Amino acid sequence: MALVRVISSDGAAFLVSQRLAKRSGKLKTEIETFRKSSDNSEAQPEIRIVTIRAEILRLVLQWLQQHQNDPVLPANQNEQDGRGDAEMGQSQWDRDFLAPMDLGIVMELILAANHLEVKGLLDITCKLVESKITGRTVDEIRTAFKLKSDFKGNEEEQTRLENRWCVEN
Amino acid sequence: MMDRQHLEGGRIHPLLLPNVITVLAEHLHSQDVHRCRLVCKIWDRIIRRKTSPLLNAKILSGVLSYLPYMSLPPARLVCSLWNDIILKSHWSEDRKAFFTRRFRIDDFRRLNAKIGNPRDLPLPLAFTSFTVLNSISLNATHDFFTDYGTSLKSLTLYRCKWTLENLRNTLFNHAINLEHLSITCGIIPGTQIGFGKEISFPELDFVLHEDLANYPVLRQMKCIELEMNLLDKRDNARAYVEQFLTELFKSCPEVEEVNFDISAWYTRTWATDFIATNENLTLRKLRVIKPIIDPDCAKIINLQMKQLPLTTLKIRIRYKDVTLEALHELLVSLKHTLEDLQIVFLEYRCAHEFPSAQELYKLKKLELWKFKGQLDFLREFADLRNLLIGEMKLKGQKLFNQRDVFKALLPNLKKLTFKDFWEVRHERDWFS
């Protein structure tokens, strides 16, 4: 079985099968690039992911392992409305997988899923973040996600006026 | 973006170009990236957008696509990037129009016929309230409930010809978060007013469950309004209706408000039985529209034994059915909780036995219909906020002569209404 060595930003190496790694768009491209540039077809590719630390990378690979037999979703499916397929694909395993994580880890996981182009994982994590936004006030959202308001002048006031049709009071 | 300071000999410094920094950040080690944010404002902004997922346009767009439409307006206020992205790819005036007009099934059907799959409709991703009018079959709404059922909080079925099985499936499989269910003018086929057809109940057999313990439960359900016209004389309907009601109420253990308006006498008997015997009921508001007749009356009085903490009570009383003493006893038993009371006498009645203001000390809202005689007793109710007197008959006196009574009430009264014709309206108007 052909293997590939994936190395995290803090130097931890993960040895995974190429079949599994190729379920990530980014790793797939990297492996193919390595094949082209290397003369020895038997050589084991080594990929450094400098933006992702070991803990997060392990989670991504764990998720890929669990979902290795799922059909691969084309990355630009539902491009028009931008709506993913989390509702359809989310299994009990996914829910248990995400349940113990705090929001910071989920955020890093989203970035990693985006960077490694793992559509399924990106969908379920986005859905999770959505559930943290729904029903909260603006300030609660800002605090939860550590975002700052950067409206200039009366932009915020203007948006509030536009929202009047649905916001009570 | 770039101001004068960044220009050196007519050229922009390459390390201040957004694209350059973005590419750099891709390749930088995760620890270095955060150090780089300290270099300058532009680096900080661009790197923050790169490293915070909710400032990354693609990821943010993904997250927002799951957001119910009603949550988008507050999300716009979070920061300018969110606002821009929502306005660019998630905002649509069509959707907004649906909300501001309060979505109706007519629109839905028209669009459904045209497009086919409701997921492709220019509709919000979540509805909170939905009205189904008579001409709509379940097939036309099946896809709708599959997609939007879980977001529904309020469902009104007006003259629907759904079978009970349809209703069951819809409620328990899709609309699981429902808080308010209103059934108006009959759910059981052939029992609508004016249909006059022979009733057959073959499709109702499924209702008769053997094991009551296995009912699906709608924990969110807070309010049930039932307004059905059943035919009293059709005895074969009785078993089914009672079973239906049992099943419905067993499935909604948390229900707090019941508007009960079913014409057949046995359903009223059933309802009062249910209220009187169900230990776990958390009922707070009760409205029984059809006149209370003899057997029920005794049961309603049972509420007194149960000490149900009702805050709202709306009843109609027919002279022959209930003695004034019994009514008085009922009201007094509710004195510690009752805030909103509506009594409709079906014949003109005096109120000699009306409890005193000391007894009903929590009463804030009072409606009296078809009342006869002096209003002097009202003088004591100085805490009333809202008073309605309907179809009053004064014994040879003019209302003007009773002005002293209202003078005493006025300091606290927020709303005072006089009506001279029969008009007890539903508080929820499903057409508006």
TrEMBL record, chain A:
State the protein's name. S-phase kinase-associated protein 1
Organism of origin is Orchesella dallaii
Q: In what residue span(s) does the SKP1 component dimerisation domain sit?
A: 119-166
Pathway recorded for this protein: Protein modification; protein ubiquitination
Q: Does the keyword ATP-binding apply?
A: no
What family does this chain come from, according to its entry?
Belongs to the SKP1 family.
Instruction: State the Gene3D superfamilies in the record.
Output: Potassium Channel Kv1.1, Chain A (3.30.710.10)
- Give the signal peptide as a residue range, or say none if absent: none
- Output the Pfam families linked to this UniProt entry: Skp1 (PF01466), Skp1_POZ (PF03931)
Q: Which UniProt keywords apply?
A: Ubl conjugation pathway
InterPro entries in alphabetical order: SKP1, SKP1-like, SKP1-like_dim_sf, SKP1/BTB/POZ_sf, Skp1_comp_dimer, Skp1_comp_POZ
SUPFAM superfamilies in the record: POZ domain (SSF54695), Skp1 dimerisation domain-like (SSF81382)
Q: Which residues form the SKP1 component POZ domain?
A: 4-69
From TrEMBL, chain B:
Domain F-box: from-to ranges: 17-52, 55-94
Q: Which SMART domains match?
A: FBOX
A Pfam family matched by this chain, by name? F-box
What the entry lists under InterPro entries is as follows: F-box-like_dom_sf, F-box_dom, LRR_dom_sf
Full protein name: F-box domain-containing protein
Q: Which organism is it from?
A: Orchesella dallaii
